[in-house]
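I am writing to request your help with a piece of structural work I have in hand. I set the record out below, with my sincere thanks for your time.
___
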Amino acid sequence: MREYPSLSIMALTHRTAPSNLQDPIRVKNLVSEATNRLHDEFWREVAPLLERLEFLVEEIDWRYTLDGLALFVNKDFAARFDLPFAVNERVQIDESFATRDLVFGLNRSPRYYVLVLSEQPTRLFEATRDRLQESRAGKFPLEHKGPGGATAMPGGHGVQQSAYRDEYDRKFFRCVDEELSKVFSDDPSPVVVTGVTRNLTFWDEVSTNKAQLAGTLEGSYDSANHHELGQRVWPVMQSFMAENRARVVEELGDAIGAKKYAAGIGEVWQMAHDGRGETLLVEEDFHYAGQLHSSGLLMPAEAGTADAEFMGDGVDDHRNRGRQRRSRCFRG
């Protein structure tokens, strides 16, 4: 969205008492700062925007906040996000919303799935960091109702029960994988698969979704609660992300060798503006307050050029412009 003024408020919050007792005061102070800045520049024109902001704050349930809070408001849009990661606390008024903290946090704390393989039943969870919520997407949870599951194995002379059970287990886990494919068609997020060795082996044999696999966790977690399971699977996901970051750095080295890279805020800005970026790597604490000249040249904020558009953070703005193409953004 590009609409001036677009107000972004990033606040630190806390999950538990007594730390969270100060959260309403912190947010109130940031809202006061935003209100004063908007009144100074726009006076009465921002009354609808401030009404939206007031409504967002009134709707916060301070008992259930996470590690951060983001408020985004302009004349046509208002949204609040409770974030499972800390943010850099600030107020920003600009042409676009301040989303770089969200991109950074999501790269370090991406959404993913947890598939718990079991006959009774197989469950699917949506996860962020170590927080899990059971998903009811498709036909999940799925119960094995055939022989070897809810139905007794056949008896009698000459019946090879182990082979019979294996065949029905493969059939069941093939159904599980088909339902997972439907979930991935709408949301192709990584998945951590858990289960006893036998179930993991069958799923590995029949799965067509290995490209989404972030890792496996061996063991029986049929009766594990959300908290316990989250504590076990999050380290698996962290290892997967670390491997991805290492691979991106290696890709950067290859790109440098092939002279297929851009460096420096000015050159990278132009590449992003032209839609020519594939992967963006930014130092974690690097910000660039700048001015965009009518010619398209990005200059330092202190340049003082009259014919220029001021922006609070050129890194955030050019990352948004770079979305003209699908791209990956990494900060390290």
Remarks:
- The longest strand covers residues 6-12.
